[in-house]
Each structure stands twice: as C-alpha cells, then as structure tokens.
Amino acid sequence: MRKLLVTGGTVFVSRFIAEYFVQKGDEVYVLNRNRHPQPERTKLIEADRHHLGTVLRQQSFDAVLDVTAYTREDVRDLLDGLGNLQERFRDYVLISSGAVYPETLPLPFLEIQQTGENKCWGAYGINKIAAEQELQKRVPDAYILRPPYLYGPMNNVYREAFVFDCADSCRKFYLPRDGAMKLQFFHVRDLCRCIEAILDKRPPVHLFNVGNKECVSVREWVEQCYRAAGCTAEFEEVHQDVGQREYFCFHDYEYQLDVTRQEALIQDTIPFEEGLRESYGWYRAHKMEVNRKGYLEYIDKWLSST
Question: Which CATH number describes the domain made up of 157-183+215-256+271-303?
C-alpha cells in the first residue's frame, strides 16, 4: 500500500486518479477546499493549496500526484506547504500538457524539443511551462507527463458530451469544413496506468509525452461518438467564415505528440471505440454534471437555417 497525495480529487482527471488508486488498494489523500462531493474511500485534507500553512507539515507521502497545477505559483505554494522535501515525499508526478510546445515546431512534438508559447493555447500553455520549470528547479527528479486531449468517464468538459447530446437528440452534426483535422486523445485510465508504472518502476527518464499513438480525424471522432451512442452520424459541413469554437468543441489547431517514450510505461492503450462506449455510459448517468456551452444554440440560430 502506498500513501498518495492527489491535488484536487473532485472533478474529472483528479477524481478519476484518486478513485483509481483507491481501487488499487492505496491510501489516498485528496487536497481541496471541500466545495464538491469527495471521491469515496479517500481522506480529505481540506485546504487551499495557496494557503496551506502547516497543514501538510505533519504528513509524508510516497508520492504527490499534482493534477491541478496550472501556474508557477501552484507548484511553488504546494512545495512550500510540504516543507522539507526529502522527508515529505519520495516521488512527485505533475500532469502538464501538450500545450507547452510551440505550434511552429515540426510534428510530431518530441520531449527533447524546446517548449515555448503556443498561439492556440496562449496563457494556458505559458503557465504550464512555468509550472514545469518551477518543479524541475526545486525537485529535479520529479516526473512530468504531457497528455493531449483527455477523455473518459467523469469528463465534465463539453467535448464528447457535446457529440453525445447531438446523437441522443438525433441531430445532424455541423462539421468544421470537411472534418479532416486530426485530433489526438488519451483515456484517463491509461493516464493512471502511466502514473502507476512510474511509481512502480521509477524510470530514469523523467519527462513523457503520453497519448494514443494514432490520431483520428474530427469526422472519425464524431462518427465513433455517435456509434457509441447507438446512432449513425449525418453531417453538414461548415465552410462559412465563422469562428470554429462558436459551434465546435476543439480549437482549429492540429498537433500530435510523439509517444515513443510511453512504451517504457505501458505497452498498449484502451481501444478508442471501447473508451468512447465507457464515456457514453458515464454521460448517460451523469448528464447534469457536464459543463455545457452554447454550441447548439449557436448552430440553431446561425447555421441550421443557412
């Protein structure tokens, strides 16, 4: 049994991670402000990571799984709260993002390439870079994972849930142009498997791109989401000069991470169709937990009549 500290623990990735390791038999503590229901069989440390005081000074952990660090200050304040680093934890795993690579780099992005501002991701990517740098400066042996788009059960972000809403309503799907833009995904359980492998193996490499090896086109992704919902997608291509994010759930930006290093952690990933079926099952039971956006309203007002 490991003693783990998971930051967050109440929403999507951090909640899934907390429950995953509980099911593995680990002792899981979650650090949050107690504003949402807590994952079952975890131990709550109720605090704001920016105002920890001495709340963590009497604790030590086998690993810190930092899922909710988005800025330099997020990492700095958590490490300050932990105090004497050598005594408080053995391993530190930061969930970063593929948004740290500039869009001008050749594809696929490699871990050895220089990070920098990505015009698509803006401040989000810049702040993730700063969080990585703070961690590497203070904990050189920490592990950093850079995933692409995450999906799976508990996803309250309006991505696959948007397509499921369309499928359940038997709606035609409004596709950006011909739908050829590629997307790269990673199931949240595969992310957990990578973390578990790091804790078990403690590999000498400390920076990993993680994700499905194969990308899918937007059209293929929508088709598979409809199929998971038991429907067949019918498309209307959008070629008007309108902002893609007004009616679609991803930026007009195509990128791919090289995930060769990931093979040292896990040898396979969850088949995409299987992962989407699982996502749809969760969506059907938790529709009210999804943070919806106004895509359908925009489509009905501006696109469906054209």
Answer: 3.90.25.10
